[in-house]
Amino acid sequence: MNSSLLLSTISRYVSLSTEESTQLVSALTTKKLRRKQFLYQEGDIIKHAVFVTEGCLRSYSIDKNGFEHILQFAPPGWWIGDMHSFISQQPGILNIDAVDDSEILLLPKTELEILYAAIPKLERFFRLIAEKALATYQHRLIDNLSLSAMERYNNFCQLYPSLIECLPQKHVAAYIGVTPEFLSKMLNQIPLKKQV
To answer: Pick from 7, 40, 110, 134: CA 20 to 30 A from residue 82's CA?
Structure first.
């Protein structure tokens, strides 16, 4: 099991003992996803916290006109999920699938509750990343209401620098809230930087 990335991510926030790390890892299962394979679909109840170790996942909704609206990408080292469904155990509103062939770690909600009681530092870790995620989503909401498409694209490039070259343009467009045609036209109007 490829748990070293998860443990190193956690260690940036809290320090787990060897025993605590072993207990956490024993609760995990590994899953591989093929490109375009769904992990969850709208209406599913989210039963696991999901951590990406290889590849990339995305969460998105589809509106009544069939347009995708991407909420998040999750490259290696990121968590992804439908938080409302995970917390409430109600049917989710998001689809989550693999952008590329991917590998993930699944932590069942039932096991997570047990781990919170046994390892209070894990509850602190998840609170800290939840606070960070909430701040990021609030910032993005304000950006979507107030920034131009180019400014939203530049923010995307800052948030996901490792993905900008490998994602299909239609995914980037769905994230920043424009059509692929608009994004292509906008990017073609950027003057090329002069070579020194």
So the answer is: 7
- Number of domains making up the chain: 1
| Domain interval for residue 84 | 4-118
CATH number at residue 97: 2.60.120.10
User: 32-49: per-residue pLDDT in tens?
Assistant: 999 999 999 999 999 999
Kindly report, residue by residue over 99-137, the tens digit of the pLDDT: 999 999 999 999 999 999 999 999 999 999 999 999 988
Tokens of 194: 């002069």
Question: pLDDT of 18-37, one tens digit each?
Answer: 999 999 999 999 999 999 99
- Identify whether 76 is part of a domain: yes
